[in-house]
Amino acid sequence: MKLSVIVPAYNEEKNIKIFYEEFIKIFDKKIAEYEIIFVDDGSLDGTLEEIKKLNKTDKNVKAISFSRNFGKEAAMYAGLKESKGDIISFMDADMQQRPETLLEMMNILLENLQYDIVVACQKNRREGKVLSFFKNAFYKIINLVTNMEFKQGASDFRIIRRNVADSILEMKEYFRFSKGIFSWIGFNTYYMEYNAEKRANGNTKWSFIKLLKYAFMGIMSFTIMPLKIPIFIGMLLFILAIVMLVVSINNPSTLNILITFCSTLFSLQFIFIGVIGEYLGLSYIENKKRPDYIVKERI
Ligand code: UDP
Ligand code: MG
Questions:
Q1: Would the CB of 55 count as within 6 Å of ligand 1?
Q2: Predicted confidence (pLDDT) per residue in 71-129, tens digit
Q3: What phi, psi does 224 have (nearest 5°)?
Q4: Which ligand minimizes its atom distance to the CA of 15?
C-alpha cells in the first residue's frame, strides 16, 4: 500500500521542514510506502530550496515547481497527476491540518471498504463573523442553484482511493473548482470533523476579494441557472408591462410609475448582459485550452 501526500505550497519556506518532520513522526512505520509531493506554486521565497534539501536525504520527497503562481487548484491537479499512490491525500503546508488527523482519516478509509473518500470538515471556524456569514450564504446559494450537494465546512483536506483520483484526472476543465469536482464525481464519502490549528508561519493567501471571485467562479462552473433567470423575469415583467400599459392609457397620472418601471427594466437588462458576458468570458478562456500550469522544474 502506497500513500501519496500532495502539498500545495506558495511562499511557505518556514513551514516545509516542519511539515516534513511532523509527517514522518506520525507516519513512521504506519505505512509501507509513501511519497510527499510538494507543489511549489511559483513561490518567491526559499520554499523550493527547502524542498530540495529534504529531497537530498529522503527520495520519497518529490516536487514540481511552477513557472509562476497558478493557484492552489492547479497545484492540487498537478500533484494528483504526478501521484503514484494507491491512496492519495491533499494537505496544506501551513500545519493547520495535522498529520495525526490524516492518520485517523487513512485508517477510516482502510478499515471501511464502502468509503472511497474521507473528508475533513472544519469544526471550529478560525475566521470572523462577516466572513462566516458570507461563507454560509455561499453554501446556501450553491446548494440551491446546482443539483449537487456541498457540505459546509468540508475542506480540501481529503484522502481518496486511486479510482477516485483517476476520475478527478478525467475532469479536464480549465476553471477547476475542487469542491464542485469532488461533488460531481460522486463516490461514497465519509465526513470527519477536525479542529483546524493556527497557521505555523506566514499569512493566509486568501483575501476577501479573492474568495468572492472564487465563489462566483465555483457557482458558474457548476450551473448555468443564472442564464435562465432573465427568461422567467422577462415573462413576468412582460405581463406586468401590458397591465401597466392598459392602466396608463386610461389614467395619464400613472406616467411616473411607468417611467420608474421602465428604468428598473433597463437596469435589469444591464445586469443580465453582465451575467451573459461572464459566461461568455469563461467559455472563451476555456476554449483556448491553455495548460492549467507550467512546470519549471521537477525534483
Ligand atoms: N496555496 C497555493 N497557491 C496559492 C495559494 C495558496 O499553493 O496561490 C497553498 C498554501 O501554500 C497552503 C494552502 O494552499 O499550503 C492553503 O492556503 P492558505 O493557508 O493561504 O489558505 P487558508 O488555510 O487560509 O484557507
Ligand atoms: Mg492555511
A1: no
A2: 999 999 999 999 999 999 999 999 999 999 999 999 999 999 999 999 999 887 777 88
A3: -110, 15
A4: 1
